[in-house]
Write a structure and sequence with these properties.
two-stranded antiparallel sheet, single chain, 4 helices
């Protein structure tokens, strides 16, 4: 059984309901949700939009491989109305976004999936909810607790 952390975000439609539906589908199809962060309202990152995001993080226990988890989360996104992923760093409004952040202490870099998520520590909207439920977890590459990685860069020692 692997312990997997997912980041969730939505900025279209009924945002709280979108997150709750995604969590329900994750639990039905991928694995048991063992923890859920608070929901955080955040400004869009990487693009302009009049719609703020609602973000959260979940921890699940799963028997699926990292690639299987990726495909299952992408299927949930599509089912919930997401028509495209970001391409070349071009982001847009979306009803749901599910990012695979950590898969146990797995480190991988394939054309389809990089673990841990390569940009997670640069994004407060990912790290705040993640640190809330996994502050003591050690980042498998940076070898620091997630709670330590949440601090502003200029105050890290």
């Amino acid at each position: 059984m692997a312990k997997v952390y997912l980041g969730l975000g939505t900025n279209l439609g009924k945002k709280k309901e979108n997150l709750l539906q995604a969590i329900r589908l994750i639990e039905e199809r991928i694995g048991r949700v063992t923890s859920l962060s608070s929901f955080y309202e955040t400004a869009p990152w990487g693009f302009e939009s009049e719609h703020n995001f609602l973000n959260a993080a979940v921890c699940i226990d799963t028997l699926f491989s990292p690639i299987e988890v990726l495909h299952l989360t992408q299927a949930i996104e599509k089912e919930m109305g997401r028509t495209k992923k970001s391409v070349h760093g071009i982001y847009s409004d979306r009803p749901i976004d599910i990012d695979l952040l950590l898969y146990g202490d797995t480190v991988m870099n394939s054309p389809e999936l990089t673990l841990p998520h390569p940009f997670m520590t640069e994004r407060d909207f990912v790290m705040k909810p993640l640190a809330e439920i996994a502050g003591e977890v050690i980042h498998p590459v940076l070898k620091r607790k997630l709670s330590q990685l949440l601090s502003p860069k200029d105050s890290r020692h």
